[in-house]
Design brief:
heterodimer, A: alpha+beta, 5 helices, globular, B: alpha/beta, two-stranded antiparallel sheet, 13 helices
């Protein structure tokens, strides 16, 4: 109770094979993207500084000004920070409208109520990813856009050398 | 096969300067994923063997877990060509070491204390498959995290980066209008590529040279397209010559932004043969915006000069041109150009000679589809903007004059 499932993965890209459970102390970084505010003002400002005919053309803003513009509600930041801390995350990087958790598999599994596995690519690449459901506290879900860094599979591309031989 | 491209080909064709004094603030960078690293020694060898002065990267401009001992072709290509074209500019190499794909890059980049002013991204995937490859499977939409949500969030991050004055540039993809997620073209729709299909980024398509002639060393003086025409004709890359097709089409997530409405409308009403209307979203953001060489581009890697192809070449080449234009802007006003598209489309409208219009070619094929008999649909080049080569390739002297004024 008290959890909302954000995603349930029951398959993975065909070129990756699911392996063993990830070791508990394997490092994991994930980013909780919080819902931003004033997105209409942000977009208006973007077009104003980018349009040559605008009186505000090239009147760029600073990182701090932009961050203050879109900053999520204080209760969203505090709530997500508390959730992560209580789950055992010791290092949290505040990115204004997102919080990045630097932790381990065991802590991430508690925070997100999920399981992490080792996935293997035919090229030899390996990646630790969650499989099955992951969830967040139901009271926080309305403040979260997405959780990034736990279920993405890297795109392993063909070496472009194969496309064209040297002239 | 395709006529080979070296840095002098770009000078000769686009008129970029061989001698250039950069503004000290001007900087360009390439963004890498998938652990793609570069070797500074390769960059130095490339500079030596192509007779191209290139500034070495300082250690604080190499961000992320770069591993020179396992340099990748993509990263090698990107840094060599953005540096070779944007001569004198400070170069950055940014390897997004996390695993959060474009969202990870964009939020880390935005929050970094110091970043380059021009950024080239030679990566992309189906706009719809950000769900599958980026976040989850097809079923994820019912659970609150879906492809559109991911794309929209990244688009917001791109706005934040543009609002700081950074120019974002992306390759338009190497699998034609159909994209690579349906390589044999069995589905009844095209698959736009992200981030190229973002309205908040400048997307670059690929061209090849037809009837090229060898360059002498030093190359003959060349001040613009008219005097360079004898060096060959630029066309959109073709499957027969370059073995891939340039990405392009219309976003299913973002609507046509105002800066390109007129250009897109002109193309759609031009009478050019189009795919069936059900295959694409004619009210979506059209891409690419511009084009540059993307076929048989010579790099130094793994101990020798070798040719590579793809819009992965085109994006850093155009990025280097933007670095040069930023020099002018910074020198005159102390401000960079920022997000480029409204300026580029206005430039095309006010001064069409700032671009060489590429009117030959199409982007029908995927590598699998056209190599193994699949019947793929796509778009054709036309006069003016088209969803194969955008507004065309740079005529640097005219662009520089426009920006200067």
């Amino acid at each position: 109770s008290g959890r909302r499932v954000l995603y349930s993965r029951d398959s993975h890209p065909a070129d990756w094979k699911q392996g063993e459970r990830a070791s508990a102390d394997h490092p994991v970084r994930f980013i909780v993207a919080l819902k931003q505010q004033n997105l209409n003002i942000l977009e208006d400002a973007f077009w104003a500084v980018s349009s040559p005919d605008s009186p505000r053309y090239r009147q760029f803003l600073t990182t701090e000004e932009i961050t203050n513009l879109v900053r999520p509600k204080p209760e969203a930041i505090a709530g997500v920070r508390t959730w992560l801390t209580q789950a055992g995350v010791k290092e949290i990087v505040d990115m204004g409208d997102a919080l990045e958790a630097v932790t381990t598999v065991s802590v991430a599994e508690i925070a997100l109520n999920t399981q992490f596995f080792m996935f293997h690519h035919q090229s030899g690449n390996k990646v630790v990813r969650q499989f099955g459901e992951y969830s967040v506290p139901v009271g926080l879900s309305e403040h979260i856009d997405l959780v990034a860094g736990i279920s993405e599979f890297p795109i392993v591309r063909e070496n472009p050398f194969k496309k064209i031989a040297a002239g | 096969d395709a006529t080979a491209v070296v840095p002098q080909t770009i000078q000769n064709s686009y008129g970029t300067p061989s001698n250039h004094t950069a503004d000290p603030q001007s900087s360009t960078g390439v963004i890498e994923f998938e652990g793609q690293s570069f070797a500074p020694s390769d960059l130095q060898n490339f500079a030596t063997q192509t007779l191209t002065p290139i500034k070495a990267l300082s250690s604080d401009h190499i961000v992320g877990p770069n591993s020179p001992g396992s340099a990748g072709v993509e990263a090698t290509l990107d840094i060599q060509y953005i540096a070779a074209v944007g001569r004198g500019d400070t170069n950055w190499f940014w390897l997004e070491g996390g695993t959060a794909w474009l969202y990870g890059f964009s939020t880390h980049f935005f929050n970094a204390a110091s970043t380059p002013l021009v950024v080239s991204i030679s990566y992309g995937w189906s706009e719809a498959a950000q769900c599958q490859q980026g976040i989850g499977g097809a079923e994820c939409s019912q659970l609150g995290v879906n492809s559109q949500q991911y794309v929209e969030r990244v688009n917001t991050e791109f706005q934040k980066i543009g609002l700081k004055g950074v120019s974002l540039i992306a390759a338009s993809g190497d699998s034609g209008a159909n994209g690579r997620t349906d390589g044999l073209c069995t589905e009844s729709h095209l698959n736009p590529t992200f981030p190229a299909a973002s309205p908040y980024i400048t997307a670059v398509g690929a061209t090849e040279i037809h009837d090229g002639t060898p360059l002498s060393n030093p190359p003959p003086a060349c001040s613009g397209a008219s005097t360079c025409a004898s060096k060959g004709t630029e066309a959109a890359v073709s499957y027969s010559q370059s073995h891939f097709a340039s990405g392009g089409g219309f976003s299913n997530v973002a609507s046509t932004p105002s800066y390109q409405k007129e250009a897109v409308s002109s193309y759609l009403s031009s009478g050019v043969t189009l795919p069936p209307s059900s295959y694409y979203n004619s009210t979506g953001r059209g891409y690419p915006d511009v084009a540059a060489f993307g076929s048989n581009v010579q790099i130094y890697a793994q101990g020798s000069i070798q040719g590579v192809g793809g819009t992965s070449c085109s994006a850093p080449i155009f990025g280097g041109v933007v670095g040069l234009l930023n020099d002018i802007s910074l020198s005159k006003s102390g401000k960079p150009l920022g997000f480029l598209n409204p300026l580029l489309y206005k430039m095309h409208s006010d001064k069409p000679g700032a671009f060489t219009d590429v009117t030959i070619g199409d982007n029908h094929c995927t590598e699998e589809g056209c190599g193994f008999g699949g019947s793929c649909k796509g778009f054709k080049c036309a006069a003016g903007w088209d969803p194969v080569t955008g507004l065309g390739t740079p005529v640097y002297s005219a662009m520089a004059e426009y920006v200067s004024n």
